[in-house]
Amino acid sequence: MPEGPSILILREQAAAFAGQTVRRVEGNTSVDKERLLGQPIVSVRSWGKHFLLELPDFSLRIHFLLFGSYRINERKDAPVRLGLGFDAGELNFYSCSVKFIEGPLDDAYDWKADVLSDAWDPALALKRLRAQPDTLVCDALLDQDLFAGVGNIIKNEVLYRIRLHPLSTIGALPAPKLRELVKEARQYSFDFLAWKKAFVLKQHWLAHRKTLCTRCNVPLARAKLGTHMRQSYFCEVCQVQYGAPAPASGAGAARAEPSAKAAKPRRRKGAAQGTEPSTHKR
């Protein structure tokens, strides 16, 4: 699933379509795509993981889900979900969600929640986090109402950077650690953006899909944690767990396992092996 920085790159690449008029539409989307014909693109915007084309009376929202993709001024050998043709160029979207948003975008989106937006408000993020003391940090980072644009890669890397266990609860975090969580969510998103543009993103991963902790030289643990069971990679030696999540049961429970076949590392006293609470996906 493309994360916020990747959508921002798309926004920059598609900026040239602002001011152009839609001359052709095609695709297997179920929305009334003919509604787009003859409409001028007022602006090209983004919010978190949403790519937005603003039109005079409504807007088009593209969400790439898990496997969506796009092509600008070219096509791929796959059924197009929505294709837009202009006097100069074309935009083609694949395997994505297409939706119309009625009314002004400013009424539909809270720009203060977008970690890459100039309107980002860290104080508001802190306030909203403190109102959810029982939420796991691995869920909080993926909550798009709190950190729009943060996805699973950013989540894993942020928690590793600040040495915070994904099963920590928000209410148990010391105030400095909570502020560090908010600050690093934004900082790493901009680092992600720079590395993605330079085609070196994966070279900078320290935890995501990695097998060994570079600080402790022990295998990283791997487990599907949180309400939607997203894969987490973390070190049970140097990533400190604050608080204890409620016991999990049934399909929700997850057991952390080393992500490499190696000697099992010594556990920090009190380290947990897995659970879950809530990932909100807009």
Give a short overview:
This protein is an alpha+beta fold. The protein contains six helices and eleven strands.
Question: What does the model show?
Answer:
This protein is α+β, with helices and mostly antiparallel strands and 282 residues long. 21% of the residues lie in helices and 18% in strands. β6 (82-86) and β7 form a beta hairpin.
- Largest beta sheet, briefly? 4 strands, antiparallel
Shape: elongated
What is the average per-residue confidence, as pLDDT, rounded to a whole number? 88
Order of SSEs:
HEEEEEEEEHHHHHEEE
Keywords for this entry:
282 residues, alpha+beta, four-stranded antiparallel beta sheet, 6 helices, 21% helix, disordered C terminus
Spell out the blueprint of helices and strands.
Blueprint: H1 4-13, E1 24-26, E2 43-47, E3 50-54, E4 58-63, E5 69-72, E6 82-86, E7 89-94, E8 97-102, H2 105-108, H3 122-130, H4 137-140, H5 152-161, H6 175-197, E9 221-225, E10 230-234, E11 257-258
Helix pairs in contact: 1-6, 5-6
